[in-house]
Automatic annotation (TrEMBL):
Keyword match Transferase: no
GO molecular function, one term: DNA-binding transcription factor activity
Name recorded for this polypeptide: DNA-binding transcriptional ArsR family regulator
Tree of life domain: Bacteria
Protein's UniProt keywords contain Lipid metabolism: no
Annotated SMART domains: HTH_ARSR
Pfam families attached to this UniProt entry: HTH_20
């Protein structure tokens, strides 16, 4: 089966955003880049666990990492969030169109 790369990208994004810790990490690094070490100090979990969350966000292209000395700085990728917003807007248009079609059918029956 061939999977559209856009669909696979959306799957990675929604998987990444499905976790509250990852959403919180994303919110923090959009405001200001933070090292993985700084992030790890904020959560009641191991450094390795936080690092795994960052990897999931990175695979979804929601964050990027750059090296600063011995630290990896994590920054939010706003364009990725814009792509997600456009995808959700498309779903909203579809749902509104379907609701309008149902409304028309109900009006015709009256």
């Amino acid at each position: 089966m061939v999977v559209d790369s856009g669909v696979a990208d959306a799957d990675r994004v929604f998987h990444a955003l499905a976790d509250a810790t990852r959403r919180d990490i994303l919110t923090r690094v959009i405001r200001s880049g933070m090292s993985v070490s700084e992030l790890a100090r904020l959560y009641p979990m191991s450094f390795a666990a936080v690092q795994k969350h960052v990897v999931v966000l990175e695979r979804a292209a929601l964050v990027s990492k750059t090296r600063r000395g011995r630290e990896q700085i994590v920054r939010g990728e706003v364009e990725a969030l814009r792509r997600v917003a456009r995808l959700l807007d498309g779903y909203e248009r579809l749902w509104r169109h379907r609701a309008a079609a149902i409304e028309e059918i109900l009006e015709e029956e009256q």
